[in-house]
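Query form — protein AraC-like DNA-binding protein

QUESTION: What is the three-dimensional structure of this chain?
INPUT:
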Amino acid sequence: MLLDELRALLTRHARADRTTPIDGVLVGTAERAHESSASMSGTVMALIAQGAKTLALGDRMYEYRAGQYLIASIDLPVTGHYTEASRERPALGFGLALEPSAIADLLLQAPPGNLPRAGGGTPSALAVSDAPVELVDAAVRMLRLIDRPRDIPVLAPLIKREILWRLITGEQGATVRQLGLADSSLAHIARAVRWIRDNYRESFRVEDLAQMSAMSPSAFYRNFQAVTAMSPIQFQKQIRLQQARLLLATHPHDVTAVSQRVGYDSPSQFSREYRRQFGAPPSQDAARLRDAALTPAPSVP
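ANSWER: The structure tokens for AraC-like DNA-binding protein are given below.
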């Protein structure tokens, strides 16, 4: 079966940093379940070959398991954990970075009648579907190339285009296609997301973000929540807290300074929101992070 071969290839080629010799192709494995972690999702397609994972985006939950794939169309702060993973049967996953320029190129070349009709509304930035046989087959053929490095420069770009085509024309095609459209509502929201991510310490007005996104304030707010499952202020808070967690891993005894560096005026408010987000006060969580760093576990895309 294709999934069996995909598992074997992932087991053989998985590395701690998830990279492969093929640009944009990721592989990963995880042996620990129910260990929550916060990270940025990346703009990626992630196909699970073994195990299962749950992601939380705002108040939405997404679970995907063997034979399913997840699309992340914007780099968003997510919290996740594996629900099925062990040393005897680790979680295994294949990932492909989604490049808007490559998607746009495919959309330009495809005859209009070959693309599904666009649906209404703005799609969520995360979506899960069952993987069709053709998508799993393309992932298998991509990973086979790692054992034939001479073939990578010629064949890897062709298989990438095939995978993107399967996604564009698949169940979550509406989300993927918007990645390649410069004037899509997703692209406009992505512009605001990038601004908040790059300027997370600064306060802002929703009206200014709406103007940046070429939307009215009400349309911007509605579309931002549809894509990210959060308000702009909630999104900024998620970014601040995740950045604080990274800083605390190296500065565990400087909680007040870290809170100020990420934009908090009140250390007590920072501690309350940090504990609500990560389940422990900043100093205690920093100690837990240091312990976990001594025994790192690679993650599935």
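ADDITIONAL NOTE: The chain has twelve helices and nine strands.
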